[in-house]
Amino acid sequence: MITLLIVGKVNPRVAERLQGHDFEILSLPSGNAAEITTVMADKVSGVAVSGNLSASIMDALPNLKIVANFGVGYDGVDVRHAASKGIIVTNTPDVLDEEVADTTIGLLLNTLRLFPRAENYLRDGRWVKEGGYPLSPLTLRGRHIGMYGMGRIGQQIAHRLEAFNVRISYHTRSPKKDVSFGYYGSLKELATAVDTLICIVPKTSETRQTVNKEIFEALGANGVMINVGRGWTVHEDDLADALENKVIAGAGLDVFEVEPCLPERLMQFENVSLLPHVASASVATRNAMADLVADNLISWFEQGKPVTPVAETPFRS
Question: In the annotation, is 277 catalytic?
Answer without folding.
Answer: yes
